[in-house]
Write a structure and sequence with these properties.
This protein is mostly beta strands. The protein contains no helices and eight strands.
Length: about 110
């Protein structure tokens, strides 16, 4: 089990910046990917950014070039640096951890 605690949100003027943090605890060794999502009022939840255990990043089209996801493995913390914020970025931001399962063997044999 993994517990996630987000912080860093608040009020910012258009054009401003914020850095969100997501601290993970528990079975962090099982985390394959960390992602930031957001849900604006009246809208569907959307992916903002994600980062894999190998460091590969992915961004939603609306935030590319403005937001940066990073991680500090020593602190088990994932960050979302948000620059050039606009009113349309207003939302509740949450982080998600994708965990690796134990796996199930598949054998193909005649």
């Amino acid at each position: 089990q993994v517990e996630l605690v987000e912080s860093g949100g608040g009020l910012v003027q258009p054009g401003g910046s914020l850095r969100l943090s997501c601290a993970a605890s528990g079975s962090v060794f099982a985390i394959n990917l960390m992602g930031w999502y957001r849900r604006a009022p009246g809208k569907q939840r959307e992916l903002v950014a994600s980062i894999s255990s190998g460091g590969n990043t992915n961004y939603g089209d609306l935030v590319k070039g403005r937001f940066t996801i990073s991680r500090d493995t020593t602190k088990n913390t994932t960050y979302l640096q948000m620059n050039s914020l606009q009113p349309e970025d207003t939302a509740v931001y949450s982080c998600t951890a994708v965990l690796a399962g134990q796996g199930t063997p598949v054998t193909v044999s005649s």
